[in-house]
Design goal:
heterodimer, A: 180 residues, mainly alpha, elongated, B: 141 residues, 2 domains
């Protein structure tokens, strides 16, 4: 009886705790678990979101295909996309891209207007070009052809993205070292 | 001759019968097999089916399109996917905003400079046309 009581309140400590993925999937977390380095047990929501949108099996396949040193970035971007999809089940990340593209077009227009106004202040010279004020006309004139995927967004979603959600700020998802 | 009902791309891919109420068939036609192959690779048929089913009918086409776009981005860029595009756009917007701020500052400076010069000019004709100032023409006879 005493032994039973002793056992009741006493648990053998685990050698290693399960990662968030294995906890959710209710399976043993091995030392070679592909999820363990990126889905810590103290961040259960992160894996839950990714699993809900992509599925554990698909996430595992994606991770296996990328070099190990890039897996953390991969997981973070998947978490970001999953969050965006859960926030906006219809458009997901595309809503965010369309909003940003629209903002970009407006800013480029504002920049063009401002430059034209600045040219008006320029000291006139023999030629008609404004040379009194130095302007770097290349800055800000981004072509979406630089990012081929972006033009697809306009074609596919330009008219229909009227109920877009806000762009989730990049910092909401932890480290986001996607600096080009 | 028996009529062969064609399966949608999803049911062809999944090698199953395509029922009349197939959730995939309106959005994954049989003439575009790559479309379903992409979304299946990233999301899986079950998840895609759930996401479509949970959406009002009038928005389901957009769901399928956006899933296709995102899955294509992820296939092309397995590390960053769509998030890479968003990051890139944020950076470009930041650059344009900085440039715009610079140009506006230059305008403000030149504007205040012009106004200062104007206020020092003797008012002879009462014509403080900015054009005169700009061309350097003197309003004094």
């Amino acid at each position: 009886m005493r032994a039973k009581l002793a056992m009741k309140g006493h648990h053998e400590p685990r050698a290693s705790s399960s990662c968030a993925a294995c906890k959710l999937l209710k399976r043993k977390c091995t030392s070679s678990c592909i999820f363990a380095p990126y889905f810590r047990s103290d961040e259960p929501k992160k894996f839950a979101k990714v699993h809900k949108v992509f599925g554990a099996s698909n996430v595992s396949k994606i991770l296996v295909e990328v070099p190990e040193e890039q897996r953390e970035d991969t997981v973070n971007s998947l978490a970001y996309e999953a969050e965006a999809r859960l926030r906006d089940p219809v458009y997901g990340c595309i809503g965010a891209i369309a909003l940003l593209q629209r903002k970009m077009v407006e800013l480029q227009h504002d920049l063009a207007v401002a430059r034209a106004r600045l040219a008006w202040y320029a000291v006139p010279v023999a030629s008609s070009s404004a040379q009194g004020v130095v302007m770097d006309e290349n800055v800000g004139m981004v072509s979406f052809d630089d990012m081929p995927c972006c033009s697809m967004v306009n074609e596919s979603f330009g008219q229909s993205s009227s109920e877009l959600t806000q762009v989730p700020p990049m910092n909401d998802f932890g480290q986001f070292p996607y600096v080009f | 001759m028996s009529t062969i009902s064609s399966r949608c791309a999803a049911c062809k891919y999944l090698r199953r019968r395509c029922p009349p109420d197939c959730i995939f068939s309106p959005y994954f036609p049989s003439n575009d097999p790559q479309r379903f192959a992409c979304v299946h690779r990233i999301y899986g048929a079950s998840n895609v089916g759930k996401m479509i089913q949970q959406t009002p009918t009038q928005m389901r086409a957009q769901v399928a399109d956006s899933l296709y776009f995102e899955s294509r981005c992820r296939i092309q860029d397995p590390v960053y996917g769509c998030a890479g595009i968003i990051s890139w756009l944020h950076l470009q917007i930041h650059n344009v905003e900085s440039e715009l701020a610079k140009v506006k500052a230059q305008i403000a400076f030149l504007n205040s400079d012009a106004n200062r010069e104007l206020s020092f000019r003797p008012q002879i004709e009462g014509d403080s046309s900015f054009n005169n100032l700009r061309t350097g023409e003197s309003s004094v006879g």
